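Much of what follows relies on a compact textual record of a protein's fold. A record is reproduced here so that you can trace the correspondence yourselves:

. . .
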Amino acid sequence: MLEECALPYATIPVNISKGDQFKPQFLAISPNNRIPAIVDHDGPGGKPIAIFESGAILQYLGRKTGKFYPQDERGRVEVDQWLFWQMANLGPKAGEANHFRHYAAERLPYAVERFSNEMNRLYGVIDKRLEDREFLARAYSIADIACIGWASRAERHGHDLSRFPNVRRWLKTVLARPAVKRGLSVKVEAAFHVDMTDPQVRAVLFNQRAR
């Protein structure tokens, strides 16, 4: 997905299971101690700029490259509303659905059902949106990029998309894009060796309070 923007970039691993996200040098970039975050060393005026929050990153890259983000206000608003729909709905609810299914210390039927129902509702919203269009806005955009990562993991979150043919068609279309394939195929080897049963790891990842 990054390569479609034709920007040079380098990735720096942040081991969140060991608390790298709380180091001062990372907090200077992402004060919310969350990933993703980027530093563009060729920012406005030729000076570096740090950006956190995926929606802000996508908007910035869209404006800078002129790709996947319309220039006209109506087109941009159409993309923005679905980008923010992902930020406020699809992402957080899918994250909670995943947490209570796979990482909660105890099985909480109410929480599992609550977020399963909400995810079902959200897939219904996006399925309706895609009834008469190929992508979420006029054309493939940062809104589709924001949503595809979560939607492509629907089964892991406990959802069968057989009831949502338009979502399945959209998934097939977006997942066929070469850059999307490359982006979703990136594997962080260290992540496969994180022991989620380790109390120290769980203390770092979950139940954080103000520092």
Notes: The mean pLDDT is 90. The chain has two domains: 3-67, 73-176. The domain at 3-67 is CATH 3.40.30.10 (Glutaredoxin).
